[in-house]
Amino acid sequence: MKVDGTAYRSIWLSDDGWSVGIIDQTVLPHRFVTVRLETLEDAAVAIETMQVRGAPLIGATAAYGICLALRAETTDENLEKACERLAGTRPTAVNLHWAIDEMRRALENTAPEDRVSAAYERAALICDEDVETNRQIGVHGLEIIKEHAARKKGGRVNILTHCNAGWLATVDWGTALAPIYMAHDDGIDVHVWVDETRPRNQGAALTAWELGSHGVPHTVIVDNAGGHLMQHGKVDLCIVGTDRTAASGDVANKIGTYLKALAAKDNNVPFYVALPHSTIDWSIDDGLREIPIEERGPEEITTVSGRSGEGAVDSVSITAPGSAVANPAFDVTPARLVTKLITDRGSCPPSREDLAVLFPEKA
Amino acid sequence: MKVDGTAYRSIWLSDDGWSVGIIDQTVLPHRFVTVRLETLEDAAVAIETMQVRGAPLIGATAAYGICLALRAETTDENLEKACERLAGTRPTAVNLHWAIDEMRRALENTAPEDRVSAAYERAALICDEDVETNRQIGVHGLEIIKEHAARKKGGRVNILTHCNAGWLATVDWGTALAPIYMAHDDGIDVHVWVDETRPRNQGAALTAWELGSHGVPHTVIVDNAGGHLMQHGKVDLCIVGTDRTAASGDVANKIGTYLKALAAKDNNVPFYVALPHSTIDWSIDDGLREIPIEERGPEEITTVSGRSGEGAVDSVSITAPGSAVANPAFDVTPARLVTKLITDRGSCPPSREDLAVLFPEKA
Question: Which of A17, A256, A264, B1 would give a disulfide with A271, using CB separation of 3.0 to 4.6 Å?
């Protein structure tokens, strides 16, 4: 999508034909800084430090990380070492592993001298496929927004979202935000309630920045406020992303998603989850019991980063000194709270049977 | 309770016998600063800027504000002007109005020359009564914690709380935290999950600081995390405060309380609300429709204050520049989600009938 009138993807091959460009998402929305990745370690650290985040973008960055590793050394050992290094960066993200497996499959039977070009080709394909996947999610989600717009007879459609499942989290378009961008571009009067999404504030920082850059009306709220808005009829539907989707339709998404799904249920607000097929884990039936939840560092909670008076990106400590902190990064929303899954092959109720109709080859 | 070994209340008469001391709660937990109130305006501004906050402490501060106003001028007109000025500081807090009415009743039939001493006497009584009220809440809430401790056979009792309903929010003891302090002092192994409570972070700043100062084990979490903890059996009960309690048992408390109550219901975790009788509004049956919700300024969301690297209290801007912001300060938790109300006269199910048994003279 566009930044100051210039079209960007969230990851791209540089003009030199080998190094990889990304946007440093840790300093958004305060500064727009692009970073050049030149080595496997650059890519791994970009994932670990969340300069790139969002399941699809993590996958794309891992794919290019393997390209950069092979550029240094094309051996089987180095390919395997690169896959292992990248696999350890973010344990919860299922399509990090999907992207690594795709790359490994494309490369393990390729002669070492052909591996570099094959890797770049496969990584570019992963990116292009992601863009097309998200476009398809947008098309199917747009139908749902159109239904709500029709019910409101042209009145404003208010959509609540959590965290950032926009183009910054993917290669382009986004998952949860793709239908919203399309609805806006289609002339539907959409307005987005943006959960700030503590502890990392991806909503207030990234989603608000994205939507603002594209001209979509939106309002930032604290994570505590969504239930109140739903009680008072100010939310017509929720659309969120997911980092990992159980075949049963349980979804692991950013911590706090479950609370919004409970409020949506309590107030008869439809709760939609947008996802690329790569986030579906067909081996999992009970998301709550089987999806491991990443526990991240305490400093994400004790410290908040933002623009200081002088315009620099600075951070302040907010918690009482000496207090213990816990930081589970995701929670699992049970399928019973999800109205529909919006996939790149269409929308369906959240169940193995319904997903199997859309993805018969996987089921 | 104690601060560095010294017993404090949250508001006190200074040694000079007329000016009023408070703790500036806007700079806690970073600095411990006391402030001297000398005029009505000092008191009104302390309430407005939330140097003092929490329903009972707001009431006590308003009572002393009237003392300070009368000290300047003892006329009927000035008494009425003072009451009006104070009543406008925080519209949602019902016992701000209760305290003002108590003072007005005690003073309107008092001769002007006796008003100052009568006002100070009545304000001191309001403070002492609040301390006793909270002690009673503590005694009744302790019974509930003891039941949970017995069920866990001496294992740790994990209690989730939201915002700050501790001694800093009252004159001493606190409402939601009074039972916890008593349980801890009684040798029960309690541990408190402290919601940070955006936007003003009263949990991470004040509740964590209070509990830490008293030696109660606790862990700070983001507001998004409580549901996840309940799904995994890590919360035995919730205790929160309330700013306004409908006679039906609906409770208006800090924004986000409703989301935790939903999660508690979904996971069979008992959800208790601790309250002094002064927060009960006997005229209200439908909290959701009838309790007006204060909308506060956007800067509470866009800006976060904390300790900078240099140790000063500083603030940073966290939201995307140009994004709109909405800031409802409270939400209403319907009685159907509340297990029991813990009042200064005992605990009861959340209903007009049950409250009437405890408060027959009011019902």
Answer: A264
- Put simply, the answer to whether A306 touches B304 (Cβ < 8 Å) is yes
> What ipTM describes this predicted complex?
0.92
Q: Within this chain, do residues A71 and A150 fall inside the same structural domain, yes or no?
A: no
Residues B147 and B249 in one domain: yes
Q: Is the domain of B125 the same as that of B144?
A: no
B135 located within any domain? no
Task: Please report, for the domain that includes residue B169, its CATH number.
Answer: 3.40.50.10470
- Tell me: pLDDT of A332 over 90: yes
A-proximal residues of B, 17-56, CB under 8 Å: 28-30
Phi, psi of B352 (to 5 degrees): -60, -40
Distance CA A304, CA A322 (A): 17
In DSSP terms, which residues pair with A2 in a beta bridge?
A7
Instruction: Dump pLDDT digits (tens) for A341-357.
Output: 999 999 999 999 999 99
- Cβ-proximal residues to B37 (8 Å cutoff; 6+ apart), any chain: B19, B20, B21, B22, B43, B46, B61, B64, B65, B68
Residue A320 has pLDDT above 80, yes or no: yes
Q: Tell me, what amino acid is at B288?
A: L
pLDDT, mean of residues A120-139: 97
pTM above 0.90, yes or no: yes
Best B259, B310, B313 member to test A by mutation, with max A CBs in 10 Å, is: B259
**Can you give the residue range of the structural domain that contains B309?**
140-358
A125 and chain B in contact, CB less than 8 A? no
- Which DSSP category does B320 fall into? P
How far, in Å, CA of B71 to CA of B42, rounded?
13
Is residue B273 within 8 Å of B161, Cβ to Cβ? no
Put simply, whether B156 touches A (Cβ < 8 Å) is no
B215-239: per-residue pLDDT in tens?
999 999 999 999 999 999 999 999 9
Cβ of B288: how many Cβ atoms within 10 Å? Answer: 18
